[in-house]
Every structure is written in C-alpha cells, then in structure tokens.
Amino acid sequence: MRRWTIVLALAVLAGVSLTACETSYDKAKALRAQAAANAPKPLTISKPNKDVKVDQTALLHDQNGDAIVVELTNESNQALVNLPLLINIRDAKGKTVFKNDTAGLDFALNHVALIRPGETLYWVNDQIDPGGKSVKVTVGQPEAKPPKGPLPELEVSEPKLEHDFSGLKVTGTVTDKSKLDQQHLILFAVARQGGRIVAAGRGQIKALKVEAKPAPYVIYFIGNPAGADVTIQAPPTVLQ
C-alpha cells in the first residue's frame, strides 16, 4: 500500500509540475505577443494628403552636420494636427541614404504638430545622414482632430544672430499668450537669401507656462545664415 501511495503521490506531483510549466510557457508566450503588439512600428503613409502642398525642399550641409528643410502649405480650410511626414533622401546614384520612418523615432522628426489653415510652415530635420542629393517627401493624413476652441497663440520674438565656439546661432524668447501650457515645443529656424534656403536649425523649449516670463530659445544652424532673412516658427504642441 505504501509503495502504490508513493507512486501515486509522485504521479500527482509530476502532473502538477507539468501543468505549472505549461502555464508559465503560455504566459511567457502571451507576454511576448503583447510586447510585440505594443512595440513601436515604422511609420508608413498609405494615403498621401492632397491638402498639403510641398512648395520646396532644401538639403543643407556644413562642418556641423546635415539638415533638410521642407516648405509645407496647408491649402485646406481647417487646422491639420499631428501630420506625418516621410522623407526619402537619395544619393547621386538614386540609392536611399536616409529615411525618417524608423520605429520609435522622436515624434517631431517625422511629424508636424500643427499647420493652421492657409499657413506655410518650414519643417526642419537636422538629424539626417550625409550624402543626399535629392529627396522625396510624402505627407500623410492628420492623426488628430483640431480642437473645437481657438488655437493657442505663441509670440516669438525677433531672432538675434550671435556667434560662439559652436558656430552661428539665433537667440530670442517665446511667450505663451493662450490658456494652455506647452510641452516639448519645437522651434524651426530657416534662413533665406534671394528666395533660396541657405541655413536652418531646430530648437526646443521643454515647458512653456501661461502668463510666465518669456522662455528663451537658442537655435544653431546648419549652413550660413549671415546676411539672410531668418524666420522662426513654433507650432503649438498642446491644443486642448
């Protein structure tokens, strides 16, 4: 009796162990599947946006790196929010040297936070690979709806051109005139001379508070902005 009791007990324990192992495996498999589903996906655009006109593009290079500028005009009668923007930069032989579709890429490097109705915006990406000679731009559909209320108003001061050991830069301030604090505000600086884009750069203000002191910005350039007309644009990121 003891012998069969012991054998039966071992069989029961083995069954429990096998069941536990199977459950752990299934759980791990489910977690892996969930992680894969939640992982960042490469940006794709299946339906190009016919309401946004790409007026011109410019590839810039100097000792500090490379940048691309894309001039966009919203030809619709409504604000476009979180607009995806894909760029495919090719070398002289037509081979792709850079695309901004990488999964997990910073949002502002392949999206435009806001373009107002009829507005022309200069979008800048200064984190591209060198060697580009031509570029294809694809604008997608907005990923968010415009707010029902008025859009935030941000006041950008006139840029002041300066120079330090890192190169030419512009400085100034941004004031939040709306009722919404702004987070991770991206500023685009573009220098034009004779209708041609000769320099560009990006800056960031992590937090811009309503009715607070104007927040300072500093933007360094790719290219030479000396003697050119400099435009600073700061599309709001928090709309409601």
Structural class, please?
alpha+beta
Helical region count?
1
Q: In total, how many domains does the architecture comprise? A: 3
Cα-based radius of gyration, to the nearest Å: 26 Å
Walk me through the topology:
Elements lengths: L1 H37 L13 E11 L2 E10 L5 E11 L5 E4 L11 E5 L4 E6 L8 E6 L14 E3 L3 E5 L2 E10 L5 E12 L2 E13 L6 E6 L1 E2 L5 E5 L7
Antiparallel strand pairs: 1-2, 2-6, 3-4, 3-5, 3-7, 8-10, 9-10, 10-13, 11-12, 11-15, 12-14
Short description:
The protein is an alpha+beta fold and 240 residues long. The protein has one helix spanning 2-38; strands spanning 52-62, 65-74, 80-90, 96-99, 111-115, 120-125, 134-139, 154-156, 160-164, 167-176, 182-193, 196-208, 215-220, 222-223, 229-233.
Would you give an account of this structure?
This protein has 240 residues and is of the alpha+beta class. The chain has 3 domains: 1-39; 52-139, Immunoglobulin-like; 154-233. It is built from 1 helix and 15 strands. The strands form 4 sheets. Strands 3, 4, 5 and 7 form a 4-stranded antiparallel β-sheet that branches. A hairpin with a 2-residue loop joins strand 11 (182-193) and strand 12. The longest helix has 37 residues, at 2-38. The radius of gyration is 26 Å and the shape is globular. Mean pLDDT is 89; it is low at 1-13.
